[in-house]
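FAQ
Q: What does a multi-component entry look like?
A: The components come first, one per line:
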Amino acid sequence: MRQEPFIRYGQALQAIALVLLLLPVISQLLPATGFGILIALILRKEQQLKRRRLISLSLLAIWGANQLIAGSAGWLEAATNLVWLLAALRLLEANDRKNIGGSGLLLLLALGLAGLQANGLAASLLAAVAALLVLCSLLGVQQGAQKLKVALFGQAIALLSLALPLAGGLFLLAPRLPALWQLPGANSASTGLSDELDPGSIASLVQNDSEAAILQLRNLQLPPAESRYWRVRVLSDFDGRRWQPGPTAPLEINPLPVLASNQQQRWIMQGPSRKTLPWAGFGIPENPNQKINRNGELLKAGEGPYVLVKGNRKPNWLSQIPTANESQWPKGSNPQLEALGTQWKLQYPSPNQRLDAAFRWFKAQGFEYTLRPGLMPIKAPLDAVLFEQKRGFCEHYAAAFAALMRAAGIPARVVIGYQGGEWQPATKQLQILQRDAHAWVELWLPAGEWRTVDPTAWIALNRISQGVSASLNASDRNQLGRPVLGWFNQLLAPWQKLDQGWGDWVMGFDRAKQNLLLEKWLGPEASYRALQILASGLCGLLFLGISLLWRQRWQQKGDKAKQELNRLLRYLAKHKLQPNPGETLSAFIERAYNQEVKLKPELIKFKEAYYRLRFEANTDKKTEQERLRSAIKTLKHLCFSPQGRAQSPP
Amino acid sequence: MQSSGLRLSLRRIFIVPSALGWLWAAVGGLLYIVGVNTSSNIPLILGFLMLALQLLAIFLTAQTLHGLQLNWPTQIEGWAGAQLPLILQLTVPKGMRYLGLQLGPKGRRWEGICAAGMQQIAVPWQGESRGLHKLPRLRIDSQAPLGLWVCWVRVQLATEALLYPVPIAAAVVEMPWPQAVGTQQAQQSAEPHDFHSLQPHRPEEGPQRLAWKQLARGHGELSKRFEAPSAKAVLLSLQPGIEKEKGLSAIAARIKQLASSGDSYGLLVDHIDIPPANGAEHRRICLRSLALLP
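Then the predicted structure of the entire assembly, as tokens:
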């Protein structure tokens, strides 16, 4: 089939959409994905189907091989990258009308997945433009447009603006199901800490400067910067590469009745809802239902802020004897690291000496603290961090150090949470951002308790005392969301305000906020009522649409007189009487009553009423319409009754 | 030619999701699940937006066929076993759209862009046997504006197709005329047109007969005159002993051949007796009577 002129434009529109949707997530692109997309975009005009298939397959093969060899990406990252690549390859194939729809659809999926990685206002606007372009390409193809016209964009905008209210209503009112399953590493990418330490998961979080939590202190001193460790999750399962939460530990019953104390830490969570909450590791939850488990994780108990009251005893979790899980070491996973640990184990009898040795060793290595340590190999990744690349971020060092200590025979586990926070003198609260996410280590030392050790502090002390941006070099700082220049910051202030509003109100609109909002509007049983409103709204729209369509049908049928005339023609057709082309109504009616004599009086009555209704200015419309109707009624009776038929001449 | 027409109304329109529509819904659902699972709102909003667009597209798609005015001829004629174009007149009220038209489930599909205004569309149809056929129902479909829904109407056209026998060259009985009457001197037709002479060219003879070789040599415009060796006109008749349909096909093929060379021919088959003549109208009369032969 000949290629239609618009297909080329549609393809170009989709290519631009692809570029736009990838712009905000360009740092998330794996090199192989970037390469594949680039080649696909360059070669997209290739005509021969066979050659296009060949290009697609080879790019896919290169990508797959690269994943197998380098393969450091988490599976969500890999899946997202794959969808992006597939969208580009599909675009390569989209040069007839059937395929262009499919590639547009794939682009929308790619757009949604890119939204996981970047959801700032700028990224969202780019995504909206990309969606608009995809819509344009679909519209143009179906309309058989010959070339790109401004009107097409107008139509796409009109279509979007019609669909947006409905989508907005769904967004506000449609019930948010709880997560069906936990996507590993999924949370980290966009909105919060993940539940495992996959390489790169915190480094990407650091680019997110949305608020994670707020800590309000009542009658308590703000701890110094270097001891602001807010623990969230404890990871004790280690498979040689990744740290994950261990088997669920039995819950510890709060040991003491809560004393009414005016020394309180009040936490307000800002990010997405999660099962374990940040806390300092000491204090007793005011809410008796809120539990702390043996790992020292504070479990969530209901929505809203939570309060920790100062206790007068060491928390119980600190002295929980390590489980076998917490000293388990996967043999042979990282041989160099294992050799070093074993050497210390033999050399130093006391765990404290081994820790000292590790400290000296870490200081001597000249490790570099960077957001972009490069890809890590699948085999012995932590060996690569400590002995080859010697570059990394807190997660790399925490993971490698904990592994090293386990190899040296000390029970160790990784803790992830937040470190630091910015004190707001005006509101007297500590603001903790997602970029304050951090990972550190806990060791079981002979004192009989878990002790916090942060290898990152040995490498980049600034990270702990002054925050992330102070400890990074200039090019890394550019990766952070917030520009560093002061005056530039001021120029950007209104935009940042908008961006923050977007983040707070739209991107941060989660289940809890939805519940709050709905309860505010609709009172108790809000979600049930919201469903009712949604259902009735949808029914209303359906009804509106159908009634609009019906109206058109009526308009097409014409006015009352025309409808009555149509009925008359239908009845007469039963007697094989049909108007000839060019025959006037009176001529036709005359012919009709010459054939069917008994119809004559009613036919004449009908004709006169019809003409009066049509052509006379001063008639009583109602009377004439009534006449028409009665004539039709009689005619119907005469035409259809068997008696009437019998009388009619053959 | 007589024709009748119909204006498509919503009462006749059917609508179901297209393959892309099903995929679209699946991707929307997938985005919802991704959004819910990662508590990320962009996939969620996009999923809702896709759902909204899909719902909206139901009405818009139905709209694309609404108000189309269709006119068709009451009769078409042509050869059996060959694609026969049915010329339809389609009036689009406004806007361009991509439409597909198809006669019957087996008919070849016409697809193309229809602009606002009146246009003629040749929808191909093929009948296998001679005679008077009722055309199968015409299906008009559209996927505009987004390709998410297919809506279609089926229209029973009041068109009859008269199909001539499939022209398959074979032996026929050719009787010279007028000598043929009574003599029954049949002759197998092998090569009845022999070159006879050159005569001054008359414009109404057309370029086919022009003696190009002579013209090129500067002898002026001359016409080639052909003549059947034995007679100027022939009566065509069924070859005895041959199956009737095959015989009719052979006669049809012969008529096609004779008509294209401008010779005179008549028919003497069963009760049909058409004296020899030539011209398009004569050819049509002969072929029609062959088509309608019981």
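Q: Is there any commentary attached?
A: Sometimes. For this entry: Helices of chain B lie at 19-37, 41-65, 180-183, 212-216, 244-261, 280-292.
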